[in-house]
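Most newcomers find our protein records easier to grasp once they have seen one. Each record describes a single protein and holds just a pair of labelled lines. A learned vocabulary of local backbone shapes supplies the integers on the structure line. Nothing more is needed to start thinking about how sequence determines fold. The record below serves as our worked example for the rest of this section.
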Amino acid sequence: MNKLQITNCTAIKEQTNMYEVKFSDGNEYIFNYDEIIKYALYEGSNSIAYDYNNLIFCTNVDRAFEKSLSFVLLRARTFAEVRKKLTEMEFEALVIEKVIEKLFEYKYIDDFDYCVRYIRTKNKLKYVSIKTLEFELGQKGVDNDMIINCIEECEIDEYSNAREILRKKSKNIDCIDNKIKQRLERLLYSKGFGFDVIKVVMEERILNDED
């Protein structure tokens, strides 16, 4: 089989550092200067070991990777967030998955690391429930099993967190009053704490009031 040849490489006047390359199989494509150098796309040369489709695939992976770098360096991202961003930029699925592999390989993205950092930061700034963490990380596209593993890794103490919220919200308040008790229970429930946690911390708070 004949190797793919470059039959013409012409600079595009209207676009700086962009070149129209024509191939011996009749295809043509626009490359930037760096791509011309990387793939040796000079007129009369063989395009290395690439066939046309593979060349375009590799070029699009390079482009998508460059686009993704500015996105992931701005702040930490999940695999799903990168996938969504590149999909919005209209890169094809196979290109996106290859880019995600590269980003993970070079340690730009890592869902487990992201989850652990997110959970620890969130728990430090706010006293959160496991349900809230599961929901927020799920919204970011993190796999549910990974979320559970990361929460276990971080050893979230829901009882302690619920007590702290209750302490802050019930200063100088008599929790024996039924209406106040129900209001505080609703508050804890709205923050994702389960009935078992709420029951324990409310009983502790009421006992303190009675003392």
Summary: The beta strands are 6-11, 18-23, 28-32. The radius of gyration is 28 Å.
